[in-house]
Amino acid sequence: AYDKLVAEVRERFKFLAYAPIITLSARTHKRVDQLHDMILEINDNYSQRIPTSKLNEVIEKAQRRHQLPTMHGQVIRIYYTTQYETRPPKIAIVMNKPKGLHFTYRRYLTNKLREAFNFMGTPLLFKAKRRGER
Predict the structure, then answer these.
(1) pLDDT value of residue 107
(2) What is the rounded CA–CA span in Å between residue 118 and residue 69?
């Protein structure tokens, strides 16, 4: 029953795939303390700043593993990535063809960053842009 309920919630709220699910009881107070701890951890994740060098290491490794697709035969290059804001974490991807960053590759990069850093419960927002673009 629990697994079925979790699957139904995940299906209905696909856009919240990064959010943890926790069950608790208001009557018996079961797992209420875990909720408090989880909220504090998610707040830390929401506020964290990842150094540019570590961010670039993860992105470069991801690119070596799975190359960016081309756009109309043109090679797409990511020059570097940097986090420009927290709460939620916002990451700029500086590249030669920002329109060439397909949503599937963006999702792939999001998953790689989630594997490398603790972003549980936190949305990751990307902005693809050209060099010198604000």
Answers:
(1) 94
(2) 27
Paired tokens of 116: 């490398």
Q: Which residues of 68-90 are buried (b: 16+ CB within 10 A; e: fewer)?
A: beeeeeeebebeebebeeeeebe
Beta strand 125-129 with 90-95 is: parallel
- pLDDT attached to residue 1: 87
Phi and psi for 37 in degrees, rounded to 5? Answer: -60, -40
What's the CA gap between 122 and 114, in Å, rounded?
A: 10
Q: What is the DSSP code string of the chain? A: -HHHHHHHHHHHTGGGTTS------TTT-TTHHHHHHHHHHHHHHHH----HHHHHHHHHHHHHHSPPPPBTTB---EEEEEEEETTTTEEEEEES-GGG--HHHHHHHHHHHHHHS--TT---EEEEE-TT--
pLDDT tens, position by position, 90-126: 999 999 999 999 999 999 999 999 999 999 999 999 9
**By the 8 A CB rule, do 47 and 87 touch?**
yes
**Quick one: tokens of 25?**
């009881």
